[in-house]
Structure formats: structure tokens, C-alpha cells
């Protein structure tokens, strides 16, 4: 694999760390700025909103910009946002810093997926995307626990300062390692015509179905883990201090699932989606029961992470294949779809809890979401088979990935 993927993975590691580390730092924000817990929680929800807005906005505004340069701009924006958070004198400044850094999130992963896929031969594109996302999964195993510990024991400001340094490293790596012209369309896609081409991708039913699968499938994971702390303490009987290592187990599962998903998404993407979504639905449903047992919970959590993240490479590859002529906006919006799924799952899980459901009931919400994503995957395959049967003999499929001038092996 090209060494340029290392730079993308470092950027993904920094982004993953800053996205999730605030969940463990809310008490520090409350103590420093004198705000309530719900107000401190805006550092998480504001970030998610920034991802949803920033992903399509920056993808469109940066449509005429070379993808390598756009990646560098995103990492510069990410670095500035975290540096601003580190020195924030008031809570609103911290929020501004969080939003600024979040604007880079969706566009970096969206553009990075295009660049990663086009740095390698077509048959290895899902593996390349998975390697970039490995940085995000490792962040959940190493970056978030370490950042939380640093913030709790020393200073939360130092946590954001270190993340800003990671941003500088990623920016330097992209500048030095990503080839000039990496990921560019052979015919060029800049200007108004390029923007129209990008939006045209959303007329493809397969693109829309893939995004819906992203919202429901990945959202199913967050229906469970959003409420993992009360679930593990109230149902499984763990102490609050044990939740951190349980999240590490979840993160290890994510790393494994992402790598395995990348490997098999190049060979059989549809089959992998069927298996991972079906298994995710079953495991989430079982978690309603196993979450009442310490050992059962510890075994089930990494399975949830593994099956959940096994869906990421095939879904992102599906977007790139079906929006092959102009993939930047579609890819970036699909990253926003992950966050939309997170927010939807958290909301639905909260409704179940508010209605009097037990602490493990959000897992059933997640299982239903994963099963719905599986149904959409079957629908997508059925529509695709019908399209191929109707296509005249000898007419090529525009969605088949093709080598690009910058492709290397």
C-alpha cells in the first residue's frame, strides 16, 4: 500500500480522537466554565452538527480545488479549531473551536476516501479506504482513553493542544507524501460544471440507498454505545471506572472489523454487507440479554464494534463506484450520514428510555435499525440486478471502477 495512506490515517486518528474525547471531559468543562451538564454536552452535539453542515458545504465550495490541497486546507482548519479550543477563555470560544474543527471532519474523510481509492489498483480500493479509517478506529482504542486520562489528570487544554499537534503532523504528511494530482478526475471536474456533476450523483438510486444504509446500519451501533455507561453500571453491574476499558474492547472490535471489512469488500462487497448487517442485528438483539452479565457484555461489545465497522469500507466503496464520475460530494455527504445515524440512534434510544424501557432497550432500537439497513441492501442488489438485465448486451456499466492516471500499486 502507498505510504501516503499513513498521512491520511494520522489525520483520521486526530479527527477520531477530538470527536469522541469530549464525552469523558464534560465534568472538566463544567468545573472550569460553570456550565451545566447539558450545556457542556453542546461540545459533542455542536461538533456533530458541524460535520453534517461542513461535509457537503466544503465539498461544494472546494470543488474547483485540487484534492491534495483541499486535504491540506482541512487539516489546517482542524488544527486551528483544536488550538482555539485549547486556549478558550470562555465556553462559547470552546464551542467555536469545536465547530471549526468539525467542519474539516466530513470533507477530510470524503475527499480522503477518493484519494485513498485512487492511489491503488481498482481491486484494492476498499482495502485502501479501510487503512485510512484504521486511524479512526485506533483513536477509539488509544487516542480517546489517553486524551481523557490526560484531560482528567493534567488539563483538558493539554488534550486539545496535543490533538492540534497531531493535526500539524497530518498536514505535513499530506504535503510530503500524497502525490500531486492524487485523486483528480481525468477530465477535470472543477467549476460550475463540476458542481453540477457532483450533485447529479444523487439522482442515482444506489447512491441514495447506500447513504440510507449508512444512517441505519452504523446508527444501530450508536443506539447501543450512546447509553453504554448506564447500561454497564445499571444492568451488568460494572463500576463506573470499568466503562473505560469496556470502550477499549469496543474499539478493538472496530479496528478488527474495519480491517477485515476492507479486505473482503474488495472481493465480495455485497456478501460482506449482508453478513455484517445481519450479524450486527443479531448481536445487538442478543446484547439486550448479555448486557445483564459482566462476561456476556465484555464478549458482546467487541462483536458490535467489529460487525458495525465491517460495513464502513463496502458502503464507502459503494458510494465511490456509483458516483464514479464525480464522487467528492457524495463521499463527503456519506460521512455526514454516519453522524446523522449517530444522532438518530441516540434520539430513538432516548425515546425508548423515556418511555420507561429498561437500560438495555436501546439495543433493540439498534437491532431494528441494522435489520432495516439489511433490507435496503437486499433492495439495492435487486434493483442492480434488474438494471443489468435491462441493459443491452455489450453496453458497459458506468459504475465499474476504472484505473486513473495517478493509480499506483
TrEMBL record:
The chain crosses the membrane at residues 44-63, 70-88, 100-121, 128-150, 156-178, 207-230, 242-260, 272-289, 295-315, 327-352, 364-383. It comes from the Bacteria. It is a multi-pass membrane protein. Keywords: Cell membrane, Membrane, Transmembrane, Transmembrane helix. Residues 387-409 are annotated as: Disordered. Pfam families: MFS_1 (PF07690). It is found in: Cell membrane. InterPro entries: MFS (IPR011701), MFS_dom (IPR020846), MFS_Efflux_Transporters (IPR050189), MFS_trans_sf (IPR036259). The keyword Cell membrane applies. PROSITE patterns: MFS. Residues 4-385 form the Major facilitator superfamily (MFS) profile domain. PANTHER family: CHLORAMPHENICOL EFFLUX PUMP RV0191, PURINE EFFLUX PUMP PBUE. This is MFS transporter. It comes from Streptomyces millisiae.
